[in-house]
Design a protein that fits this description.
single chain, about 170 residues, alpha+beta, about 25% strand
């Protein structure tokens, strides 16, 4: 089984640069992200959580991780609902709220302002974390138009979710 955290980071970073079409919350790749949720991918709706769902789906598949009765990948389109998803799993995920700055590359980070991303670094000495985010922009809006690599302070992060690879089942 491949290292899941590394796969999450690799896949998320490869998507940096994807943009919506005309600020519609739609586009060929954006609609693919949205198809990783329960909602209609062809409608225009905020897709930051859909991006996280898509990255996780792809990373689980490429890492050889199997879904089980007690472990299902996230399919929610709501950033804060990722916390509920994590709590509904068995011991395969670990939600930490507050996070106490123990963020690591490959963690899902849920922000205080109803937004979500994938951490690609731990906090630096000033508390800044590098994160890949969908549906943001250069200014850091949660209603942006693409996938960006952002630097955010840990104080903006509400919680973090980490996969416990040793608890996951291989295909």
């Amino acid at each position: 089984m491949k290292d899941l955290a590394k796969e999450i980071v690799r896949i998320a970073k490869a998507e940096v640069g994807v943009r919506e079409v005309n600020n519609t919350n739609c586009g060929i790749l954006v609609n693919e992200y949205k198809a990783a949720t329960w909602l209609n991918p062809n409608k225009g709706w905020p897709w930051c959580a859909a991006f996280a769902c898509w990255v996780i789906r792809e990373a689980l598949a490429s890492s050889g991780v199997k879904q089980t009765k007690k472990f299902k990948r996230p399919r929610t389109a709501a950033a804060w609902d990722f916390e509920n998803w994590s709590l509904a799993q068995d011991e395969t995920t670990w939600l930490r709220k507050p996070h106490d700055r123990d963020i690591m590359a490959g963690d899902i980070v849920v922000f205080n302002f109803s937004h979500i991303g994938i951490a690609v670094s731990s906090p630096d000495t000033r508390g800044n974390v590098i994160i890949v985010e969908g549906n943001t922009d250069e200014a850091g809006s949660r209603e942006g138009g693409g996938v960006y690599l952002k630097t955010r302070h840990a104080s903006k992060i509400r919680s973090r979710i980490r996969f416990r690879q040793e608890k996951l089942v291989a295909v």
